[in-house]
Amino acid sequence: MALRNNKQMRIAKVQQELTANLRKSARTKYLPHVNAVGSYVHTSKEISILSDHQKGALSGLGTNFATGLQQRLGEFSTQLPMEGLGRLLGSLGIDMSTLQQALNQNIGEIGAGLNGVGQRVVDAFRTDTRNIWAGSVVLTQPVFMGGAIVAMNKMADAAEDMMANSAVAKQQATIYGVDRAYWQVVSLTHKKKLAEGYRDLVKKLDGDVNKMIKEGVATRSDGLSVAVKVNEAEMAVTKVNDGLVLSKMLLCQICGLPVDEKIILADENADNISVIESKPVLDVEQALNNRPELKMLQSTVDLTRHATRLMKAGNLPKVLLTGGYSISNPNLFNSFEKKFSGVWNIGVLVHVPIWNWGDVMYKVRAAKGANAIARLELDEAREKIELQVNQNTFRVEEANKKLAIARTNIARAEENLRTADLGFQEGVITPATVMEAQTAWLQAQSQKIDAEIDVKLSQVDLKKSLGTLE
């Protein structure tokens, strides 16, 4: 239930999905990418290829031609004997004035026609670029990026491994927390039974002492001493009850249950806590191979190493293949046309860094520093884990010894209490001696419960330090 409902486990699962998607994203950098771009631009003026003077000259081409021709004809007429020319044309049946009128009329018509041609030329050179539509589809394929894409993908792999090991670490931490909370509840449950049993013993002694006071064989001081012990026993029962309620709340919270859920654990009602003593095996190498914390630190080392390579790629050339199709309106492929037209293109893009004031060099140094820190943290973690494994192995052995001693003390305390009860019933032992025997019995029972729980928890601690807590 804890693994299914724990919030940290859910976070770890989402983090794994996140890094998996980042890894898939990094893989796409090897593949060609296609992008489409479209635009529309409106400008207040259009681009003009001809100047205003050239436009005026072309628009008045016919007029200028007719004026020049008439001037040349006028100059020609002054140089020729007009009377002789008139007689010559008259002999041919041509009237001089009629001829001049016809020439002037034709020159005017030619001028008008040439004006129209010039205006059409001016209109043909209009760009009409106040409204521009453009679009393109571009394909890019990386060929060599200085090792940046390879480093990026290896970083994504390392990040995914880190999140996977983080999930394992959170899983083990959850199991560890559940185990400690579980055995805490079991311990308090057995101590509650012990406290209630001690309270009943003291109450029974209190009743016997009160009877003896009435019979005159015990003093009032003896009665007050026993009454104090009864109050202490009641206080102990209250404390252990409160601790048990809080411990069950903690266990319910860890398991995702309502904190007021009424739960009964498998080891609560057992007469004795089931303890399987195990001989611990010191295996530091197993811990170094299994601990997810070390694997996470190793992933950090890998990340910083690949980050250094990624930074180095900033000083290397980059080569890309490009291709695509561009379209615009108006277009320039057949003069200026007011319609859509496009062209295919393919090329190679080469980017060579020349000078960046040492920017990349500083970044590489920083990445190497981060890598050095990660390596030192990994070495330190290995040393601490080796120490932890040795300590937990020793603790398991110590817990086994304490449990053996506690079991021996139980037998002695029970025998001491039995003989004290018999002596008190025979009137040869005082109530104080009986209370001492009861206190010794209580301590022995409590130490036995603590020793049993300590064996359980030390075994859990050893498994966690070895990385085998599944």
Topology:
Blueprint: H1 2-5, H2 7-27, E1 33-42, H3 52-59, H4 61-79, H5 82-91, H6 96-124, E2 131-144, H7 148-215, H8 220-255, H9 284-290, H10 292-312, E3 318-329, E4 341-351, H11 359-426, H12 431-466
Helix pairs in contact: 2-7, 3-6, 4-6, 7-8, 7-10, 7-12, 10-11, 11-12
**Major sheet summary line:** 4 strands, antiparallel
Task: Describe the strand arrangement of the main beta sheet, using strand numbers.
Answer: 1-2-3-4
Mean pLDDT: 85
Specify the number of helices: 12
Oligomer state of the chains in this structure: single chain
The third-level CATH topology of the largest domain is Outer membrane efflux proteins (OEP)
Q: Helix amount, in percent?
A: 55-70%
CATH class call of the largest domain: Mainly Alpha
Helix/strand order: HHEHHHHEHHHHEEHH
Strand content: 5-15%
DSSP strand tally: 4
Shape: rod-shaped
Can you give a write-up of this model?
The chain has a four-stranded antiparallel β-sheet, with no helix packed on it. Helix 4 (61-79) packs antiparallel against helix 6 and helix 7 (148-215) runs antiparallel to helix 8. It contains twelve helices and four strands. It folds into two domains: 2-31 and 145-316 and 353-466, Outer membrane efflux proteins (OEP); 52-126, no CATH class. Helix content is 70%, strand content 10%. By secondary structure, the chain is α+β, with helices and mostly antiparallel strands.
